User: What shape does this take?
Amino acid sequence: MKLLVTGGAGFIGSAVIRNAMRNEGARVVNVDKLTYAATPEALEECADSPDYALERADIADLEAMRAVFARHQPDAVMHLAAESHVDRSIDGPAEFIRTNLVGTFTLLEAAREYWSALPGARKQAFRFHHVSTDEVYGSLGPDDPPFTETTPYRPNSPYSASKAGSDHLVRAWGETYGLPVVTSNCSNNYGPWQFPEKLIPVMAIAAREGRPMPVYGQGLNVRDWLHVDDHARALWLVLTRGRVGATYNIGGRAERTNMQVVRAICAWMDARYPDRAPHERLIEHVQDRPGHDLRYAIDASLIERELGWTPRETFESGLDATLDWFMAHEPWWREIRARRYDGKRLGTG
Assistant: This one.
C-alpha cells in the first residue's frame, strides 16, 4: 500500500508513519507544512528509505494537493494535519479555522477528484481516513457514561469546534459524493516526540528544571490517556479494516485527573532524582483555562469488538516509558524551548 499521511511530521503523524513502515510494509508520502510543532527528527529512521517521501505543502492549497495526488498516486489517505492545541486556539482561532476546516475541505476536494478518476479495483479499494478528537463531544459530568460514536457533538473551544466542523465535512463528502471515508475520534495522546506544550511534557520538563509546575484550576479535569503507539496501531486497523462510513472511538480506558497525572510525574521524578524530592513542592495552581471541559472519557467497545484492538500500554507503563524518553532526549526539548516555544502560558483569554 502507498499511504498518503497529512501532518506526518507531527506527534501522532510521525508515530503513524513509523508504525506503517516498520510493521506494515507500507510506502508513505508525508504531506506536512512543517509548522512550529513539526518534528522531522521523529522520522529520521524513515528519511533515507526509498519507500518514504516528504512533500512540504499546505493542505489548504488545492493546486499543491492536486499535484501531490497526481505525482504519488496513493492507495489511501490518513488525514492528521491539524492545529491541535486548545490554548493556542483561544489566543488565535483563525489559523484553526483555516487549517482544520478550510484545509480539510480542500483535501477532500483533491481526494475526490483523484478517486473519481481511478480505475475500478483501485477506486473500490481507496480509503480516506479522517483522524479527529474526543473533544468534539464536549464535556462530561463526573457520573456520565463515556462518549460513544453516537454521542451528540457539543464542542466548547475554537479547536474542538473546528475539528467538529471537519468531521461533518468528511461525513458529507461520503454521503453526497460517495467518497469512501472513515473517521476516528481519540482521547488524549502521550508518548515520545510530543511537542512540549501539552500537559505531560510541560510538567516533566518543569520538574526536571526545578521550576513551578502550573496546574490549571484545582487540577480536577479528567482525561482518558492513550499511548501514541497504541493509537497508531488502532489507526492502521481503522484504515485497512474499518467499515466505510463508520466512526470509531479510540481510548486508553485510563481516566485520570490532571492532578493524578502531575503527582504520578512527581513520584517518578522523586525516584529518579531523590536529591530534589519532593517534586510536589513545585506544583502551583494557576488561573484555569476559559471554557475548560471537565471530563472526557471514551467507550472503545466498537473498535475492540469489530477490529480486535486493545491498548498494550497501561497508563503506568506508558508514562514510565515516556518520562524515560524525555529525560534521555533533553537536547531535543531544550532546543525547542530555546528557539520555538519558551514554555510561556497560553490561552488565558
